[in-house]
Amino acid sequence: MKRLVIISGGTGVMGQAFAKKLKENDYDILLLDVREPVDKVVIGEFLKCDISSENDVSGVSDYLNSKNQEIYGLINNASCQLEGLTDELENYRIDTYRKVLEVNLVGSFMLVKAVIPFMKRQQFGSIVNIGSIYGVVAPSFEIYEGMNITSPLVYSVAKAGSIHFCKWVAAKYGKWNIRCNAVSPGGLADSQKGGPEFEKVYSSKIPLGRMVNSTEVAELVNFLISDKSKYITGQNILIDGGWTAW
After folding, report:
1. What is the residue-averaged pLDDT of the chain?
2. Distance, CA of 69 to CA of 177 (rounded, Å)
3. Contact call for residues 218 and 167 (beta carbons, < 8 A)
4. Distances in whole angstroms, Cα of residue 87 to Cα of each of 102, 149, 150
5. Which of the four pLDDT bands, split at 50, 70 and 90, describes residue 1?
6. pTM of the predicted protein model
């Protein structure tokens, strides 16, 4: 029987890096994304889904019930890039703040709620939440001075919640052999929006002297989905080149 892994935010840079690595290891991939892959070949089967919509996630459950597959894993990777996302706190719009939390926290909750019954019946499953170093430590705001980007409060709050969410799920569902971990990358070289100058400044703060690539994050995610990590649960694994070691 084919082993299915579901990836939210599956058509983006990170989602496709995960899909590529998992496909190499003979998993079937279901991509969930609000963005359709127009003029773009993607790895995995695509299902349009706004994970902050209860109706859309209910459709995912109906789809899964129609398939004769083991739901081997779920990767909660979706995020949202809204207008005003990086506004200053004192000018921040409530609807923007709320929507980011809905996608990152409510959406991930609904997907976990959808797959847990399958995993309980199977007596196994691996869930990976994509966190961030900024869900663990506060940003170093000096690296953003003079740049066209910053790190907004809501991003840190959402990622911190995602990290602790995995610990709760791990503690609750371990008796069914269901594992849940978080992976928290530092700055991503292949999806950062600050350009070469920001990459240079950011990398100067890293013991390894560079940003991480999504393919490197995918290696870790693949490990946590696989049976090679079958005694690892409830952990947040930092992949940050030593950023948090200072």
Report:
1. 95
2. 18
3. no
4. 18, 10, 9
5. low
6. 0.96
Question: In Å, how far from its chain's centre is CA 231?
Answer: 21
34 burial class (0-12, 13-18, 19+ CB within 10 angstroms)?
middle
pLDDT of residue 81: 83
Continuous segment of H or E residues that includes residue 61:
helix 54-65
Strand order of the β-sheet with 125-130 is 45-48, 27-33, 3-8, 70-76, 125-130, 178-185, 236-239
Quick one: which H or E segment has residue 23? helix 13-24
Q: Does the pLDDT at position 46 exceed 70?
A: yes
Using left for φ > 0, alpha for ψ between -120 and 50, and beta otherwise, residue 123 falls in left
Strand partners, 46: 31
- Which residues touch 52 (CB under 8 Å, ≥6 apart)? 99, 102, 103, 106, 107
pLDDT > 90 in the chain, percent: 87
Question: Rounded to 10 degrees, what is the CA torsion of 150, 153, 156, 158?
Answer: -130
Q: Any idea which residues carry the catalytic annotation?
A: 155
